[in-house]
Write a structure and sequence with these properties.
Length: 181
């Protein structure tokens, strides 16, 4: 009896395999087309609100900022982020970072990965009246609010690790609301 069921299962599976529509194509995560038309290039601007957690004895503090980026091709972007937070140490200094970021959008078919990005950035770090230099990795994702606003409004999360020349290294993570032009 089991041999008969096994044979029917194998035959049914092989018939279904040959009945497949061959017009389907397989797509990968890499984009093959570049957005060369101006209408396909994307600008975005947004605001961020989160926390800044410096390394060492300094306590975690709130951080607020702005972000903007230009995406000339489907998966490559160039961004500018500025964020400010008050360091919770003896100096109570205000630290402001302005980073230029090179970004790569992961893409694909998995919902969160489709809207994720990775990158690296660097720029000046202003603390009190002094200027230091910082750099570090950047990662995040942007999820559209709904289908109607898919091309215009998204909510996301961005994280960056800031390595400084003099001030303490820190992890900054923030929620981001972005408007896509």
């Amino acid at each position: 009896m089991y041999k008969l069921l096994f044979a029917i299962t194998i035959l049914t599976g092989s018939i279904n395999a040959f009945a497949e529509d061959m017009s389907n194509t397989v797509t990968g995560t890499m984009s093959e087309e570049k957005n060369t038309k101006l209408s396909e290039q994307k600008w975005r601007a947004g605001i961020t609100s989160g926390f800044n957690s410096p390394k060492g004895d300094i306590a975690t503090t709130p951080e607020f900022g702005i972000t903007t980026a230009f995406q000339p091709w489907g998966q490559v972007g160039l961004g500018l982020d500025a964020g400010t937070s008050k360091l919770d140490d003896a100096s109570q200094a205000q630290r402001t970072t302005v980073f230029v970021n090179a970004l790569y959008n992961v893409g694909g078919d998995i919902p969160v990965l489709r809207t994720s990005y990775l990158g690296a950035g660097g720029g000046p770090v202003f603390k009190s009246s002094k200027v230091y230099w910082g750099y570090g990795p950047v990662a995040g994702f942007d999820i559209p609010f709904n289908q109607k606003t898919h091309e215009t409004l998204s909510l996301g999360l961005t994280a960056k690790y800031i390595i400084n020349t003099d001030t303490p290294d820190s992890l900054a993570a923030a929620a981001a609301i972005k408007y896509w032009f």
